[in-house]
UniProtKB/TrEMBL annotation:
It is an enzyme of class 7 (translocase). GO terms for cellular component: plasma membrane. It catalyses: Cd(2+)(in) + ATP + H2O = Cd(2+)(out) + ADP + phosphate + H(+). Residues 115-134 are annotated as: Disordered. CDD domains: HMA, P-type_ATPase-Cd_Zn_Co_like. PROSITE patterns: ATPASE_E1_E2, HMA_1, HMA_2. This is Cd(2+)-exporting ATPase. Belongs to the cation transport ATPase (P-type) (TC 3.A.3) family. Type IB subfamily.
Length: 753
C-alpha cells in the first residue's frame, strides 16, 4: 500500500533529506519519499502493516522536526455517495426538504477534511508561502533587512567616535533584530539533539564572530543569510505556484442532470452513465461522450495545444478541459478516480517519488558534507594554536568561516528545484513525466523505437479495395464484417464501417481472437477465417499474395480462400517532422516495430526516413526484438519505446523509457509508460528530450558551480586568504545563484529551438 500525506511546516530542504533518511531506516517501511518542493510524504508499506508504519513514521518525524505536522485527507465513503444521490433526488422532487433550504435546488459540496497526526497546527503559522501570510512574511523580512542595514550602517559610521560598549550594543541590537529567530531555533534544536542544522551552524559562526570582536561580520553574515532565505522562499514559492497552476485542472464541482433538474455536487460522487451539464466557461469535470450540444473546447491544460477543439454529439471529451462556448450534455464514461484529470493529478503529484541519480547523489553528499566540514573547522580552531603557536583569534576566525560554508543548501534546494521545473515545463507542452529519473534518462536517449499504428499513423483505417474470389464483393465484405463483429480493433471497426449495416449477432458464434493472426468465427454455420497471410499459411490455405501499401485482411470460408479486403491507414501530419527533429538533436537510430506486412511497414518507414523497420511481428516478437535492440546500445545511452496500444504495454515496460502516445490511448499503455504524451503528435517527443537536456544541463551547472566555489573558498579560508565575507558568498550567494539558475527550467517556452 502506498499513500501520500502533506507535511505542514516543512520549510527546510536539508531537513526534508534528513526526514527521508530517518523514516526510510524503519524496517517496516518499504519505500519513502519526502519532497521539500511539494511538501509531500509518500509512504509505502505492506497493507496489513501500513497503520503501524504510519505511526512509526509520524513518531520519527515528530522527534526530528516537532514543528512539522503530518496531514492526511479523508475520502468520502460509498455510503455517503449513495446517500448524497438519494437525498438530492428526493429534494429535487420536493419529497424531503433540507433544513434551512427554501429553493428547489440545493448545492452540496464535499470538503476535504484534514486531520493532523502529529500536531494540531495552523498551516499559516509555518508556511510563509500561503495566502496573505506570504505577504506578511515578505513585509516582516523586508523591515528586518532594511532596519538591520540602517542600524549597521549607523554603527559603522559612528564607530570611530563611540566607546566600545556602545558600538557593541548597536551591533548587538542589529544582530538580534535580524537573527533573533535563528538564534532561538538553534537553542531549541540543541535540546532536541539537532546540532548540525543550518540554524545552529549560522548561530555558532555569528556568535563566535562577536566573541572575537568581529561585530560587523557577525551581523553581516546573519543579514545575508536572511536575504538568501528570502530569495529561497521566493523561488520555491514560484515553483510551487507553477505546479499549482498545473493542478488547477482539478474540477471543483459537477452539474448532474437528474430528472430534468441540475444538481451541483462533487465530481467524486458522479457515476458512470450519469448525464452532466457543462456550461460555457466551466471545466469538464469527468471523461465522457457528448450526447447533446456543440461547443469549442480549450484542451491546453492537458495537451499544450493553443487552438481549441470542436466538440459535438458523439465526441469524446476529457476532464480538465474548459468548455468555451455552448452548453454540453455529457454522458460520463469513467468515474473521477479513473478519469484523465485524476490520472494527470496523480502523475504530477507523485513524480517526486522517483528521483534522479543527481538527486540521490546530493542527498548522500549532504549527509556527510556538513559533519566533515564542522569537524575540520573544530580541528582548524584548535590544532594550529596548540601545536604550532598560531594566534587563537586568527584560527578561530578561519574555523568560524568554515562553519558558514558548511551548509549544503545550495545543492539540496537547487537540484530538486531544477528537476521540479523541468517536469512542470514539460507538462505545459502536454508531456507528463512520471519522475525526475525518467527526465534524466530521456536526456541520454540514443535509440527511439516506434510502434506504427496509432503512433506514427493515425490508426483511422478505411476499406480502399475488395478482391473477391469465387464469391461477390458484397458477400465477402459481409462475411468479414460478421467475423469481426465482436472486435474493437481499428481494422475491425473500419470493415464494419464499410459494411454499414446492423450486425445480427445471432448469426455469429464461436468467435476466437487469434493474437497476431486475426479472428476465427462461425457465420451462418460457415467457419470463417479473417486475418493476415500467416493465418492463411498456418491453416494451409492457398491464397493470392497482394502487393499494396495497405493492410490486407484475407478471408477463407470453410477452408477455401474467398479473397481479401485492403485497408489503408494515414500517416500523421507531423510524423516525418518528428523523426527529422530526433535526428537533428542527436538521436543515433530510429526504428519501427509493426505487426503489419513487410510491404506496408517498409513503405511507411521509407516515407518517414526511419533507419530500420521490423514487420509482421506478434506481440511476443516485439518484446524479443526489443531485447535485441537493447543490446545494440553503447555506453550509458538509453532506449525509448513509443506506443499507444494495449499490446504495447509489455514493450513499454521493457524499454529503458516507455512513452505512451495520446491521452485517449490505452489505459494499460499509459500505466506501463514512464512518460505520457497527451496529444497524438510524435513531434512532442523531441520537445520533451530538449526540455530534459536543458534541465539536466542546469542541474549539472549547479552541482559544478556550487562544489567548485565551496571547495575553493574552504581552501582559501584554511590558508587565511579569504574572509567571512567570501564565506557568506560561498553559502548564501551560491544558493541564490543556483536557485535562480534552476528557475530557468520553469520558463520553458512553447517553441524550443
Amino acid at each position: 500500500m502506498k499513500k501520500t500525506f502533506h507535511l505542514d511546516g516543512l520549510d527546510c530542504a536539508n531537513c526534508a533529506a534528513k526526514l527521508e533518511r530517518a523514516v526510510g531506516a524503519l524496517e517496516i517501511i518499504k519505500t519513502v519519499t519526502v519532497d521539500f518542493m511539494t511538501k509531500k510524504l509518500i509512504l509505502e508499506a505492506a497493507d496489513d502493516q501500513f497503520d503501524a508504519a504510519f505511526e512509526q513514521a509520524t513518531a520519527v518525524i515528530t522527534k526530528i522536526e516537532p514543528d512539522v505536522a503530518v496531514l492526511t485527507e479523508k475520502k468520502a465513503s460509498k455510503a455517503n455517495k449513495h446517500a448524497y444521490k438519494k437525498h438530492m433526488h428526493a429534494h429535487e422532487h420536493g419529497g424531503e426538504n433540507c433544513e434551512g433550504c427554501n429553493g428547489c435546488s440545493c448545492e452540496v459540496h464535499d470538503h476535504d477534511e484534514h486531520a493532523s497526526h502529529s500536531h494540531d497546527l495552523d498551516e499559516d503559522d509555518h508556511n510563509p508561502e500561503s495566502g496573505s501570510t506570504g505577504d506578511s512574511y515578505l513585509r516582516t523580512q523586508m523591515i528586518r533587512i532594511v532596519g538591520t542595514g540602517i542600524i549597521m550602517a549607523a554603527a559603522m559610521i559612528m564607530s570611530s567616535d563611540m566607546m566600545l560598549i556602545t558600538e557593541l550594543l548597536m551591533y548587538l541590537i542589529a544582530y538580534l533584530f535580524i537573527g533573533g529567530d535563528i538564534l532561538w531555533k538553534a537553542v531549541k534544536n540543541i535540546f532536541r539533539g539537532k546540532v548540525f542544522d543550518e540554524n545552529f551552524l549560522m548561530s555558532i559562526a555569528t556568535v563566535g564572530a562577536f566573541f572575537i570582536g568581529e561585530y560587523p561580520e557577525g551581523v553581516a553574515v546573519m543579514l545575508f543569510y536572511q536575504i538568501g532565505e528570502l530569495f529561497q522562499h521566493y523561488a520555491v514559492n514560484r515553483s510551487r505556484k507553477s505546479i499549482a497552476g498545473l493542478m488547477d485542472i482539478r474540477p471543483d464541482y459537477a452539474n448532474v442532470l437528474i430528472d430534468g433538474e441540475i444538481v451541483t455536487g462533487s465530481p467524486e460522487d458522479v457515476e458512470i452513465g450519469d448525464i452532466i451539464v457543462v456550461k460555457a466557461g466551466e471545466k469538464i469535470p469527468l471523461d465522457g461522450k457528448v450526447v447533446e450540444g456543440s461547443s469549442t473546447i480549450d484542451t491546453s491544460a492537458l495537451t499544450g495545444e493553443s487552438m481549441p477543439r470542436e466538440a459535438q454529439t458523439g465526441s469524446e471529451v476529457l476532464s480538465g478541459c474548459i468548455n468555451l462556448t455552448g452548453v454540453l450534455n455529457i454522458e460520463v464514461t469513467k468515474e473521477f478516480g479513473e478519469s484523465t484529470v485524476s490520472k494527470i493529478l496523480d502523475l504530477v503529484e507523485n513524480a517526486s517519488s522517483k528521483k534522479a541519480n543527481a538527486e540521490n547523489f546530493i542527498t548522500k553528499f549532504a549527509k556527510y558534507y556538513t559533519p566533515v566540514v564542522v569537524i575540520i573547522a573544530a580541528l582548524l580552531a584548535v590544532i594550529p594554536p596548540l601545536l604550532f603557536g598560531g594566534v587563537w583569534n586568527d584560527w578561530i576566525y578561519r574555523a568560524l568561516s568554515f562553519l558558514v560554508v558548511s551548509c549544503p543548501c545550495a545543492l539540496v534546494i537547487s537540484i530538486p528545484l531544477g528537476f521540479f521545473g523541468g517536469i512542470g515545463g514539460a507538462s505545459k507542452h502536454g508531456v507528463l513525466i512520471k519522475g525526475s529519473n525518467y527526465l534524466e534518462a530521456l536526456a541520454d536517449t540514443q535509440l527511439v523505437v516506434f510502434d506504427k499504428t496509432g503512433t506514427l499513423t493515425k490508426g483511422k483505417f478505411s476499406v480502399t479495395q475488395i478482391n473477391s474470389v469465387g464469391i461477390s464483393d458484397k458477400e465477402l465484405l459481409e462475411l468479414a464484417a460478421y467475423a469481426e463483429a465482436y472486435s474493437n480493433h481499428p481494422i475491425s471497426l473500419s470493415i464494419k464501417a464499410a459494411y454499414d449495416k446492423a450486425i445480427d449477432n445471432s448469426r455469429v458464434s464461436d468467435v476466437e481472437e487469434l493474437a497476431g493472426y486475426g479472428v476465427k468465427a462461425v457465420v451462418d454455420g460457415k467457419t470463417v477465417l479473417a486475418g493476415n497471410a500467416k493465418l492463411m499459411e498456418t491453416n494451409n490455405i492457398a491464397f493470392n499474395a497482394v502487393s499494396v501499401g495497405g493492410t490486407v485482411v484475407h478471408l477463407a470460408v470453410n477452408g477455401v480462400y474467398g479473397g481479401c479486403v485492403i485497408i489503408s491507414d494515414e500517416i500523421k501530419p507531423d510524423a516525418k517532422q518528428a523523426i527529422a527533429a530526433l535526428k537533428a538533436i542527436g538521436v543515433k537510430k530510429t526504428v519501427m516495430l509493426t505487426g503489419d506486412s513487410r510491404l506496408v511497414g517498409e513503405s511507411v518507414a521509407k516515407e518517414l526516413g526511419l533507419d530500420e523497420v521490423y514487420t509482421e511481428l506478434l506481440p511476443a516478437d516485439k518484446v524479443e526484438q526489443m531485447e535485441q535492440l537493447l543490446t545494440q546500445k553503447t555506453g550509458k545511452g538509453k532506449l525509448a519505446f513509443v506506443g499507444d496500444g494495449i499490446n504495447d504495454a509489455p514493450v513499454l515496460a521493457r524499454a529503458d523509457i516507455g512513452i505512451a502516445m495520446g491521452g485517449l490511448g490505452s489505459d494499460a499503455a499509459i500505466e506501463a509508460a514512464d512518460i505520457v504524451i497527451m496529444t497524438d503528435e510524435p513531434s512532442r517527443i523531441a520537445t520533451a528530450m530538449k526540455i530534459s537536456r536543458k534541465t539536466l544541463g542546469i542541474v549539472k551547472q549547479n552541482i559544478v558551480f556550487a562544489l567548485v566555489i565551496k571547495v575553493l573558498v574552504l581552501v582559501l579560508v584554511g590558508f587565511g586568504m579569504s574572509t567571512m565575507w567570501e564565506a557568506v558568498f560561498a553559502d548564501v550567494g551560491v544558493s541564490v545563484i543556483a536557485i535562480l539558475n534552476s528557475m530557468r527550467a520553469l520558463g520553458t517556452k512553447k517553441k524550443l529551438k
